[in-house]
Amino acid sequence: MTHPTNIQLQKLADLRNYIKQLNSAAVAFSGGVDSSFLLKVVADVLRENVIAVTAILPSFPSREFTEAASFCQEHGIRHLLCEVQQLAIEGFVQNPQDRCYHCKKEIFRQIQTIADENKMEHILEGSNTDDDGDYRPGMLAVAELGIISPLKVCGLSKTDIRMLSKYLGLSTWEKPSFACLASRFVYGERITEEKLSMVDGAEQLLFDLGFRQFRVRVHGKLARIEVEPEEFARMIQQEVRVEITEKFREYGFTYVALDLAGYRTGSMNEELLQERKL
């Protein structure tokens, strides 16, 4: 598919009309596919009555921040930063199943302060309809604080967002999906700055080696690598395999494994979701 369908174009029109009613907004902006698309549409509609707010977190890789800042500069959007002491958030480092709830609530509270200071009437975030298919306790915090999810309201899926991003000329249309580094840990495993740094270094290495879509999941001292199945052959090439193994050990991992199921979102929730079905 090289051009949006009529249904996708109608969803874009619906989104623009929805945003037009908001008057002014602060957009929680990570620089990912969804929030970049949302921010661009909001900026096109509300013009100077929008700000982008990016939370600076230990679980947010520096390359993502750089890309977020570049996007705002390219499109002339006012970009504000919100430095959050993530490791001090009650219920974060202990990594319970509802970790994301506690973290999101604190982040959006701080974004609310910035929105109020800049006289923005609403706060928007970039969840889409596909996000309903996974365990996402952070969405409860979004609902409790009255944060608006326009992409979900207007029925946009990840596929819709990528296609419409391409239609709007956004380079992010084919950007790999990214998620908070804290999502790489087994529930109950204590999250520390050192562990986040280990994951960040490991995933940066995969990025530098040219892998496109990946995750490094942490099970104690074991790193479980997820890549797309079509990249398995490259992953096990002698020179690549040796470099990854050696570097990961330098970062602090004892064992390195390739997940034969390949990359998929929310794999740390698979056991949890299975238990809920039983």
Task: Characterise the protein shown here.
It is built from eleven helices and seven strands. The longest helix is centred in the middle third of the chain and has 19 residues, at 99-117. Helix content is 45%, strand content 13%. The chain has 278 residues and is of the alpha/beta class. Strand 2 (50-56), helix 3 (62-74) and strand 3 form a beta-alpha-beta unit. The model has no long low-confidence stretch (mean pLDDT 93). The strands form two sheets. It has a four-stranded parallel sheet, with helices on both faces. A three-stranded mixed sheet has the order 5-6-7, with helices on one face. The chain folds into two domains: 6-174, Rossmann fold, CATH 3.40.50; 181-277, 2-Layer Sandwich (Alpha-Beta Plaits).
Mind sketching the topology for me?
Elements (H helix, E strand, L loop, with lengths): L5 H15 L4 E4 L4 H14 L3 E7 L5 H13 L4 E5 L15 H19 L4 E3 L13 H7 L5 H4 L4 H10 L25 H16 L5 E6 L2 E6 L4 H4 L2 H14 L3 E4 L11 H8 L1
Parallel strand pairs: 1-2, 1-4, 2-3, 6-7
Antiparallel strand pairs: 5-6
Helix pairs in contact: 1-2, 4-5, 8-10
